[in-house]
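User:
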Amino acid sequence: MEQFATFYLNETLLGLPIPAVREINPHFEITQVPLAPEFIRGLVNLRGQVVTVIDLGIKLGLGKREIQEQSRLMIIKTNAELSDLAISMGIKTSDDPVGLLIDEIGDVVTAEKGDIEPPPANMDISDLKYVRGVAKTKDTLLTLLNLNQLLLVGDNSDN
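Assistant: Predicted structure:
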């Protein structure tokens, strides 16, 4: 059984494994970085720590996020912060602090391993390498993201 922190981009419900999430931050001011790839929205200062902000909408082919009142930054744990549980689950993140710009936070969802299926070919997300699978909830379909691919540095397909 796995638990996922869920969130929305447009109307799409997405999820990441809870052991990979450090915090959800509602207050942030992004400083743009010249010459950065389009999906890098900029940097934030989070209690003295510089965090790179990834616009998840651009990365997934869902369009640039408009920052609104319900927008949040989902701060991902660095590889050094991951617990033994996360590592045993095969979770890899980044050596540097990263925040994902999301439209709105959802609920915590629990899914059995047997309930997770491969992603269908007709998904809204443009690059399925970022999708680990889908899980059916009682109300909708939860798209589970593959952090290992999502945070991969030096991925030429994003430039």
